[in-house]
Amino acid sequence: MVGVHATAAEPPVFVLNSLQADISVIDPVSWTEASRIATGKEPHHLYLTPDEKSLIVANALGDSLTFVDPVTAQVQRTVRGILDPYHLRFSPDMKWLVTAANRLNHVDFYRWNGKEPTLVQRVSTSKTPSHLWIDSGSRTVYSTMQDSNELVAIDIATQKIKWRAITGAMPADVYGSPDGRHVFVGLTGSDSVEVFDISGEQPRSVQRIKTGNGAHAFRAAGDGRHLFVSNRVANTISKIDMQTQRVVDVYPAPGGPDCMDVSADGRWIYVSARWARKLLVIDTAERKVVRSINVGKSPHGVWTLKHAKR
After folding, report:
1. What is the DSSP string of 183-242?
2. Cβ neighbour number for residue 307 with a 10 Å cutoff
3. pLDDT of 154-213, one tens digit each?
4. Cα-Cα-Cα-Cα dihedral of 206, 212, 214, 216, to 10°?
5. CA geometry: angle at 85 spanning 295 and 37, to 5°?
6. Among the four 77, 164, 183, 240, which has the fewest Cβ within 10 Å?
7. Residue 73 · residue 82 · CB < 8 Å
8. How far apart are CA 164 and CA 307, in angstroms?
């Protein structure tokens, strides 16, 4: 694999090709695929280590994590024996790496010492844990249950389930509001984002924001107020005002939009077109797709080091 030169002015954009077990490395200057990186089977999501020196790719069917340099796109190492890491997230206090085992119905807590994950607790959940969110205080993990239509809250201190809430159809991504009062849940089996008030001891469903069929993945706009959601079936991306809980803008995204990243200035959305084998670049000012780059089969996770605040 030929990596991107370390002195390049712009870090690459990474796109996980879930059905090809590899990563497309996109040069953000020429907007061409510079190289491919082999991974384990079914890489779906990825997350940066707390020191920002490694991008961790979770290989669900490969039961492994691939560590990649986010600047040079060189593979650093592979950690094996991580069961079904579909989705992953670090706690804000940097003490825990949490993974959702999508096909095995559990959420795992790994102690993170800065280098290696060590399994501490495996929490049995419900059917098909999908996406994870951890609150800013590193107190609670929220996980959607795709096939039992639930949102589950897990206490980090005890690593036990605190509560379960029924959601709309096929909940996928979950995102917490900056004030810590609400979580937003993408309903892939519906056309909406469901909003839960989590300020009390028990959650309350307080709003359904209609966005488009197949509401799926979130990405913060970087301004502390707005949230993008990909509507996979509607082939659009909606911009939600988290304070008013309303859609304030919509962008076209053909080919089954899925995971997204956002440029540091907030101008560009980089989104995987899951069914079209493309990475799309959307100009949010012009409200249109300005680039379409060929990648691999079933592109999923997208990441670049030079991004808007998450």
Report:
1. EEEEETTSSEEEEEE-SSSS-EEEEEEE--TTEEEEEE-SSSSEEEEEETTTTEEEEEET
2. 20
3. 999 999 999 999 999 999 999 999 999 999 999 999 999 999 999 999 999 999 999 999
4. -60
5. 30
6. 77
7. no
8. 33
Calpha distance 277→298 (Å, rounded): 6
Residues 308 and 262: beta-carbon distance below 8 Å? yes
Name the nearest CA neighbour of 205 among 214, 216, 217, 193. 193
b (16+ CB within 10 A) / e for 105-119: bbbbbbebeeeebee
Q: State the DSSP string of 59-84.
A: ETTTTEEEEE-TTT--EEEEEE----
Which of 146, 166, 143 has its CA nearest to residue 154? 143
pTM of the model: 0.95
Kindly state the tokens that stand for 163.
Answer: 């509560």
What tokens were used for 31? 């907007």
Q: Read off the pLDDT of residues 260-286 as tens digits, 9 standing for 90 and up.
A: 999 999 999 999 999 999 999 999 999
Tokens 């844990």 locate to 129
Q: Find where tokens 């008013």 sit.
A: 244
Helix, strand, or coil (residue 254): coil
d(CA 156, CA 96): 9
> Tokens standing for 280?
């799309």
The CA-atom distances, in angstroms, between 43 and each of 18, 51, 57, 298 are 5, 22, 6, 10
